[in-house]
Amino acid sequence: MTRLDRLAELLKDAPDEVFIQPHNVPDPDAIASCFGLQYLLGKRGIESLIVYENEVEKANSLKMLELFGIIMSPASQVATMGEEDWTVLVDVQKHNANLTDLITDEVACIDHHELSGRESGCRFLDLRPEVGACSSIVAEYFIENGIEFPRKVATALLYGIFMDTADLSRGVSDLDINMFYHLYRLSDISLITELKGNQISQADLLDYAKAFQSVEIYGEIGFLYLDNCNDSLLGSAGDLVLSISGVNVVVAYSPRPEGIKFSLRSINPRIGADRMVRFLLKDRGFGGGHRSMAGGFLPRENLQEDRSVHTLIRHRAISFLEGEIVKV
Ligand SMILES: [Mn+2]
């Protein structure tokens, strides 16, 4: 029995509707994974609807929906959604900060992020934190079950791998490479080119311009403050700062109504972004991720009014780096 067999077996008993839900503000990897899974479930006679929370905000994510004909609905607009419905979580785990807990029952989860470590209550779990893109996991379901990829699904999954592994340069596992190779031959590369040409909007460019004026560099670490509530921009602006010669670690952060959101990147193998974000937010907030990329959140109630968050973060980041260097 394959993983898909087990998942389909479970979902056949769904009392009412089946939903597929990615993390809030779904990115290309999340969208492609949902799209691929929806097709697979359809092959097994299970109808499902992709629902999400917050916005699909990035230009390339929106372009994906258009190019591949992917239909996703904001959960709040699905009038029939109720307690009796079942949901498969994709590219996210229950209890993650970037997931809105819907009224439905979350019965299954397919994800490649760090394990949340909390009991999810899911009856089907496929969690592989070592994999670079959730799209690779979904692509493997096709192969394991001998299901042919429609060209659009293959192309979407390939793009998901491109994006989540930064063009096969970040957190890449054997599965990502094997799936990349397999999907590449089946994909419409002209659509990938088109997506690459739609990565940001004109409004994003202005936000970037403003954000880059805030960049401060101390040795190999760069700090970036974005005074704008756009999640996807935080990571991608951080990537650009990381590409500055001499900068190996980036701490990007941005205020939200409920607190401050963090995104860290590291290309120094001695400095784990996951350990660093936990150090930065110790006793104040929470964070986690991988060695090369991590995220975190500092709730507003834990901010001391008399001390600026900028000072706190710089102070802690430098202490962390000094500690790491002493250890080496
Ligand atoms: Mn992902």
Proper CATH architecture of the largest domain: Alpha-Beta Complex
Helix content: 25-40%
The unique ligands bound to this protein are: manganese (II) ion
- What would you call the quaternary organization? single chain
- The name CATH uses for the topology of the largest domain is inorganic pyrophosphatase (n-terminal core)
Question: How many H/I helices?
Answer: 11
- The average pLDDT is 92
The number of domains is 2
Note down, in words, how this protein is organized.
The strands form 2 sheets. This protein has a 6-stranded parallel sheet. It has a 6-stranded mixed sheet with strand order 7-8-9-10-12-11, sandwiched between helices. The chain has 2 domains: 3-196, inorganic pyrophosphatase (n-terminal core); 205-327, Diaminopimelate Epimerase, Chain A, domain 1. The chain is built from 11 helices and 12 strands. The longest helix has 19 residues, at 309-327. By secondary structure, the chain is an alpha/beta fold. It is globular, with a radius of gyration of 20 Å. Bound molecules: manganese (II) ion.
